[in-house]
Write a structure and sequence with these properties.
mainly alpha, 81% helix, 176 residues
Length: 176
């Protein structure tokens, strides 16, 4: 059991690398792609990558005070007593991922955007709820940047799909 504690400590030290905080929201792009393509294998692989991504980056030599504060608050929250309210809050994550998958599986970019933005805003609000303002601001910037990128890519894909549909419809109408 000691090796499990060592692995957890090793991963936790790397979680302080804020680059991983900027990268993590971008995992929703392949998640969205595989949901759209209806690939359970791709969705599962992306979830494994997302879950392990905090340990992909080296531990920072000198973590920022905001990162230390936020992660201490997050750790206290996660290791504290699990009340029914906390369990309900934890269920938001699989509900968000399920909602995003369902929206894209059904080819609804509008609902995918609703899910992405609701999930991102929930994460931001949650960070302010569990920590002080300065610590929460440490997470705000990566979360906001992730939302901007995700919205831009999904809107681009939505627009591209609409244009392709119009071109295909015009082509089909012109040959009949």
């Amino acid at each position: 059991m000691e090796w499990l504690n060592e692995v957890a400590s090793w991963a936790w030290a790397r979680h302080h690398n804020e680059l991983s905080w900027y990268i993590r929201p971008l995992f929703l792009l392949p998640f969205a792609y595989f949901s759209y393509k209806r690939s359970w294998w791709g969705i599962g692989l992306t979830l494994v990558a997302l879950a392990t991504s905090m340990a992909w980056f080296p531990a920072p030599e000198h973590p920022t005070p905001g990162a230390i504060e936020f992660l201490a608050a997050e750790r206290e929250y996660l290791l504290g007593e699990w009340t029914p309210a906390k369990i309900a809050m934890a269920l938001v994550v699989p509900l968000f991922l399920g909602g995003l998958t369902a929206a894209l599986w059904r080819r609804s970019m509008a609902w995918a955007l609703v899910a992405i933005n609701a999930g991102g805003l929930f994460k931001i609000a949650w960070s302010f709820a569990i920590s002080d303002f300065q610590a929460a601001m440490q997470l705000f910037y990566p979360a906001a940047a992730g939302l901007v990128v995700l919205n831009a890519v999904l809107l681009f894909m939505w627009r591209r799909r609409k244009v392709a549909h119009v071109v295909a419809s015009a082509h089909a109408g012109g040959t009949g």
